[in-house]
UniProtKB/TrEMBL annotation:
Protein name: DUF7715 domain-containing protein
Organism: Frankia umida
Pfam family, one: DUF7715
InterPro entries: DUF7715
Lineage, opening ranks: Bacteria, Bacillati, Actinomycetota, Actinomycetes, Frankiales
Domain annotation DUF7715: ranges: 1-124
Length: 137
């Protein structure tokens, strides 16, 4: 199944990029504060961050990867446990997992995703999973 994972690929295209999560770990969206409803690139990063399910650290880029050993139920359980471990209510884990799975399904493997509050968009395409770009080193 295709899922969002933390990645450093595509970092630096925006001046406020950061990558503290573990490369390749599953990620989720973190709740955001009211400061970012109109300004996701303000002082607080919560409107543009993905959070690693294991490390609980953030990154501003996530990669769509195909992870054949993980089922939808596995992802939902991992998300629920991660939210609980971080002190967030896990009541919305099912809905969040369903939303992310549906969004990721429409993107190609290797797509680099960025977040603007509730909107996710493709920032770039990696050559890691979709083939090398001719003339690129």
């Amino acid at each position: 199944m295709k899922l969002l994972t933390a990645t450093a690929y595509g970092q630096g295209l925006r001046v406020d990029d950061f990558h503290w999560a573990v490369e390749g770990e599953l990620v989720t969206l973190r709740a955001f504060c009211d400061l970012h409803l109109d300004r996701p690139h303000g002082r607080c990063e919560c409107g543009r961050v993905f959070v690693g399910l294991g490390s609980h650290y953030g990154t501003t880029t996530a990669m769509v990867r195909h992870l054949p050993g993980i089922t939808e139920d596995d992802y939902r359980d991992a998300l629920c446990h991660s939210l609980d471990a971080q002190g967030w209510p896990a009541a919305d884990a099912e809905a969040e997992a369903t939303r992310l799975i549906a969004e990721v399904e429409r993107w190609p493997v290797g797509a680099i995703i960025e977040r603007f509050v509730d909107r996710l968009a493709i920032r770039a395409l990696s050559d890691a999973d979709i083939g090398r770009v001719p003339g690129r080193h």
